[in-house]
Amino acid sequence: MDSGLTNLRLKWLGIDTQKEFVVYMRSDCPVCISEGFEALTRVMVRVGNTTIIATLNVIHSDLLARDEASLSTSAWNKLEAREGDEIHFSHLQPAQSMSRVRAKIYGETLERGDYDQIIADIIDHKYSTPELAAFVTSCAGERLQLDEIIALTRAMVSTGSRLQWNREIIADKHCVGGLPGNRTTPIIVAIAAVAGLAIPKTSSRAITSPAGTVDTMETMAPVNLSMDHVRQVVEQVGGCVVWGSGVNLSPADDILIGVERALDIDSEGQMIASVLSKKVAAGSTHVVIDMPVGPTAKVRTPEAAQQLSRYFELVADAIDLKVKVILTEGIQPVGRGIGPALEAADVLSVLRNDQDAPDDLRQRSLMLAGSLLELTGQAAEGDGPARADAILRSGKAWEKFYAICEAQGGFRIPGKAPYTREIKAGHSGFILSIDNRRLAKVAKLAGAPHDPTAGLMLQAVPGHRVESGQPLFTVHAETRGTLEYALEYIDTQPDILEITS
């Protein structure tokens, strides 16, 4: 298929499709006509000696000439393309593993080999976006059996890079999410590193929340580090907080997370495989898992938490990880800020031992850090929180965190949003409850996590009395438009914070 009739010239359009590879051609170009390509066809694309699989988007305008094609930025970078390069096309055979995905959709239990093939095809970009969505959906709603979660985890571990360390113990911590503002990780990493542990913390960006650990950390330091840079940072200062995608750990997970984010789905089985595969890929040996439980948290009941904890521990045991799951309160947000920069401000206030630092964030961080110290043998059973507290009070945790930021590329102060609006109580009374999910939606409508300074600052919590007109929370936004989106939603949700009459 290298004849002049079916080769096109590349033109740069600068279209961002995240990680999805997309190729753009006119409907009347020689390739579309001769090969019968239609919109959303999956095609093999070659520039020079590099080949990728991309989804075709058809253009019905003069944006491209008949002999021109373009690529999404991710595809352009992958192919190391230059404007004017010749681009070649060929047909793609359907991914054979899709037959096993269809089997899963109809209720079959898949084997290890099935998941190996599925994950391999996902890594090779053989799945279209609808096919990825089908796989994600087929695994949702407790449809994965324990053996399947183990098989999926192992398949994800076997792809991508793995960090190797010259230590017997590599510590880590993870939160299953669902609780706004629960940004304990940077504090725990700093405390653990002071205690002498190696803790190379790799995280994903937010999936369904207003901020993930990486989104928050990025407001204070660079997070997109190479694998060599990660090793250098950990060897130099003992810990890091970086984006897992930057070091190519469990790359299938990064692809699946993009689909989960779009669908607003966080499947329990895939979550376990996602978390534990990245821990193994990062070289972790001992992991503490924070599992908030509450009626509007991700895990809603103690019964669901017990089952999920058991699965985490069984899968971890199967892949030689030492895991301790800790059930924590998930009734209300942690700290005051919700959104990357606002949560970073809370983290810094705790690390610096500020008098007005949110005590709930401080206490939760100490409890989890203490558990990690006990799990790794750095503290006797029951003594972990006290040792963590001593490290934090001494100021050494703040010094360590600053050193980590500097080693990752330089510490910076989180920014502030230009637009804010106070949301006030309509009447006096006691706050009975907070709906975590709807409060998180306010922050997302305000622009978080895409806009790092967007989100909200909480000024009242359950159990406190408020007077009519007293601020409940303040919405922060980077544009007037996103502020209005959040305010319009708030107007339709008067009981996000339920107040007694």
Automatic annotation (TrEMBL):
GO annotation, cellular component aspect: cytosol
Q: InterPro entries in the record, alphabetically?
A: Glycosyl_Trfase_fam3 (IPR000312), Glycosyl_Trfase_fam3_N_dom (IPR017459), Glycosyl_Trfase_fam3_N_dom_sf (IPR036320), Nuc_phospho_transferase (IPR035902), PYNP-like_C_sf (IPR036566), PYNP_C (IPR013102), Pyrmidine_PPase_CS (IPR017872), Thym_Pase_Put (IPR028579)
User: Which UniProt keywords are given for this protein, alphabetically ordered?
Assistant: Glycosyltransferase, Transferase
The reaction(s) catalysed by this protein are: thymidine + phosphate = 2-deoxy-alpha-D-ribose 1-phosphate + thymine
State the source organism's domain of life.
Bacteria
State its Enzyme Commission number(s).
Answer: 2.4.2.4
Q: Which SUPFAM superfamilies match?
A: Nucleoside phosphorylase/phosphoribosyltransferase catalytic domain, Nucleoside phosphorylase/phosphoribosyltransferase N-terminal domain, Pyrimidine nucleoside phosphorylase C-terminal domain
Q: Does the keyword RNA-binding apply?
A: no
Instruction: Please report the stretch or stretches of sequence annotated as the Pyrimidine nucleoside phosphorylase C-terminal domain.
Output: 430-497
Biological process, per Gene Ontology: pyrimidine nucleobase metabolic process; pyrimidine nucleoside metabolic process
Known SMART domains for this protein? PYNP_C
GO MF annotation, one: 1,4-alpha-oligoglucan phosphorylase activity
- What Pfam family does this protein match (any one)? Glycos_trans_3N
PANTHER family annotated for this entry? Answer: THYMIDINE PHOSPHORYLASE
* Annotated protein name in UniProt: thymidine phosphorylase
Organism, scientific name: Fodinibius sediminis
